[in-house]
Amino acid sequence: MERSKAMSGLDSALKPRLKRRSTFEYVSWVVCILVGIGVLSSVATNPNFKWDVVAKYFTHESILRGLMLTIFLTVASMALGTFLGLGLAIMRASTIKPIAALAGVYITIFRGTPVLVQLIFWFNLSALYPNLSIGIPFTDIGTAIDTNALMGPITAALIGLTLNEAAYMAEIIRGGFSSVGKGQIEAADSLGMSGAMKMRKVIIPQAMPSIIPATGNQVIGMFKGTSLVSVLGVAELLQSAQLIYARTYETIPLLIVASLWYLVMTMLLSYPQSKLERKYSHTSARVPRKARKVTLTAPEGIAR
Q1: Quick one: DSSP state of residue 199?
Q2: Cα separation, 244 vs 56, whole angstroms
Q3: For residues 132 and 173, what is the distance between their CA atoms, to the nearest angstrom?
Q4: Average pLDDT of 220-233?
Q5: Cα 63 from chain centre
């Protein structure tokens, strides 16, 4: 009898608590629905939006080419930025003061200046260094590279986005390193692990649950941030829309086309991000939809 009472008590404790809906909540739903219907009706019936033009250019060849270039810049900048950010995070966590200070200065500069300014700076790098020399120091062996020919719009966009993203990823990864318990590091030291092995086998795997969700947010931010490279003349999604409405003078419909593609891609990226956040979340406050039954192994109520 006592055992059955204990089991029923545990089952009731695991059940999610129901919150009684108030009158204010129902009224809020009605108001929100009415406002939403009003906004949608206004947008759908306003002829100035020119939805026929939006439908015409939504899958236009130049728009799709710009979308592909936007995706390329996002993937390439995130991959290179994450790799460089990992190196910066390791340098920042180094016990060698000059190395840690160098990484700190890099992060401070690239996080403290607008990414648009950085993009324009890299695009005009030839004003500072017309030629870059690559060779062996103190010898005549080397070659000169024309910076103006090398630093094209896409190259400048890729370099600017990568270097800026590396600074943010370095802080995200460093925060993940800080989440690893001190006892884990001491245990690795007691096993005689080298610094590289400790980083590879202990710190990085345990820091991933903190790093991955934040990285997902950076991917979405990077996808939208690629619109800034339009100032360099890179024919990404926004620039492709601008080139079209510069000819047709249909500014609003083309901006709607670009906005819809940004919205669609952001929603597509948000789904795997939510899955990763749910998988790697450390919080235990979330109540599961279906609670696992607890089996008692002893009359005293010890759960298995």
Answers
A1: I
A2: 12
A3: 33
A4: 90
A5: 23
How far apart are the C-alpha atoms of 83 and 70, rounded to whole Å? 20
The DSSP line for 66-99 is HHHHHHHHHHHHHHHHHHHHHHHHHHHT-SSHHH
Residue pair 270/64 in contact by the 8 Å Cβ criterion: no
Residues near 291 by beta carbon (within 8 Å), at least 6 away in sequence? 11, 14, 15, 16
Q: How far is CA 18 from the centre of its chain?
A: 35
The answer to whether residues 154 and 233 touch, using CB atoms and an 8 Å cutoff, is no
For residue 200, the SS3 value is helix
Which residue has 């993937």 as its token pair? 75
Q: Looking at the predicted structure, is the pLDDT value of residue 140 above 90?
A: no
What would the two tokens of residue 41 be? 């009706």
**Angstrom distance (rounded) from CA 93 to CA 177:** 9
Rounded Cα distance, 103 and 172, in Å:
14
CB 166 within 8 A of CB 84: yes
Do residues 167 and 104 lie in contact, with contact meaning Cβ atoms separated by under 8 Å? no
Q: How many CB atoms lie under 10 A from the CB of residue 16?
A: 10
Cβ(63)–Cβ(261) below 8 Å: yes
Read off the pLDDT of each residue in 152-171 and give the average, rounded to a whole number. Answer: 92
Q: In 81-183, at which residue ranges do the beta strands (DSSP E only) sit?
A: 131-135, 142-146
